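We treat protein structure as text, and this decision shapes the records that our systems exchange. Below, we set out a record of this kind in full and without editing:

***
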Amino acid sequence: MHSLALSGDPERITAIGNVGDDIDFLGLRVSPDLDTVLYTLAGLLDEERGWGVRDETYSALAMADLLGEETWFTLGDRDIGLHLARARRLAAGEPLSAVMPTLGARLGVRVRILPATNDRLSTIVLTDDGELPFQTWFVRRHHEDEVRGVRFDGAERARPAPGVIEAIVAAGAVVIAPSNPFVSIAPILAVPGIREALRDAPGHKVAVSPLVGGRAFRGPLAAMMRTLGYRTDSVGIGRLYADVVDTLVLDRADAQLVPAVEALGLRAAVCDTVMVDPSRRAAIGRRLLEEVLG
């Protein structure tokens, strides 16, 4: 998303984010995926960790720990400031889909950031020890439990947030970011109406593979794909998205997988996709758009 914003007109981009990771912690509603997008686009992200604010301090969390509160979920001081601002607006009756663009504008973000839904939707991970809320599995237990399944509590009752379906239908191109398809993208597609809107959208529909050489740069995706019965490469990613996209973007390191991806009925586009270095993101975004849009 950051690379596309840098390479094009950010006012024309809508970022639709996952809320399945959201957690109520220390009395605050935290939206990790939405906040990571916000911090990235605002130039505040801690690039080394891949989440949170760079040069963060943790005085508030240390005091909460001293007072006997649980502090296993890390909240920095500036991060807490964001959560306080959001909490006040939510308490005043503003929906999350109105709050996020307002917060983004205050931080100079020109991309419109929307939650997939304003309704409560929680990602639940099935393990050998039973069902675990996502953040319990991912943060508190360090995603060490093997994943046997994933479900999205509340999805059947959720409705797309205002503007979500409209953005998908009107888009010249919809790009699924190289995020974990099971716990970052699937919760979005689980909201009734979103998968169908994407499937039927007339524009280009593209997914960027989050695996390069069978490995993810962060997180447990490769291990999840193994335990859930998928190939741990971009062909496995293609199978997950074959019903909703037309094109799968592979890194040059995986160019040999093009025939297998195309056998799934997808167009395979090959370009550099590794965006760890912030200075290269604009160039990568431009090249990606060239490959996908022609």
Observations:
- The chain has a mean pLDDT of 92.
- The chain has two domains: 2-115, 122-293.
- The domain at 122-293 is CATH 3.40.50.10680 (Rossmann fold).
